Amino acid sequence: MDTHLTLNFLSAYVHHHNYYLNAWRTKGFSWNWGAALFGEAWFAFRKMYLLAIIIYSVNLCVGLLLGFVGLDDATFYEIYIVFAITQRVLFALTANFLYYVSAVQTIKKAHSKHTMLDLEEIKKLGGTSVRAVIVVVLVNLCFSLLDRFLA
Fold first, then answer.
1. Is the pTM of this model over 0.85?
2. What is the mean pLDDT of the chain?
3. Which element (helix H / strand E) includes 128?
4. Domain boundaries, position 125
5. Domains identified in the chain, total number
6. Which residues of 71-98 are buried (b: 16+ CB within 10 A; e: fewer)?
7. What does the pLDDT look like over 28-45, one tens digit per residue?
8. What is the DSSP string of 28-73?
9. Burial call 124-133: b when 16+ CB within 10 Å, e when fewer
């Protein structure tokens, strides 16, 4: 794929959202408030499902591990808040880069399957998924309810 064609595909992938196109043009770290504030829900929203699942699993494991250590509630929450803030800062700094990598991989995979790709196909592969956010919210709700009933 030539560079001009790839830029058109990337633009279609993000539905011509200038924020991402500009962030990808600048090299280095850039800040993403959506990823900072919404974490795994942002990754799911941007159709990076595997990353969202990995993040959710890590959060769950850290929470369970801290719970099994037998810390008092105040210490548990202090440690978990520091973990969560650190994690969100890392998300904010790396999200645009991770989204770029995901977009390029998805486009290359689609191109390897179909030699003639059109922009509409790429647009369907990219964009956002409100359903994925709803799933994240429901999973969070279920775990919160489970935690309340088991506590």
1. yes
2. 91
3. none
4. 3-150
5. 1
6. eeeeeeeeebeeeeeebeeebbbebbbb
7. 789 999 999 999 999 999
8. S----HHHHHHTHHHHHHTT-HHHHHHHHHHHHHHHHHHHHHT--H
9. ebbeeeeebb
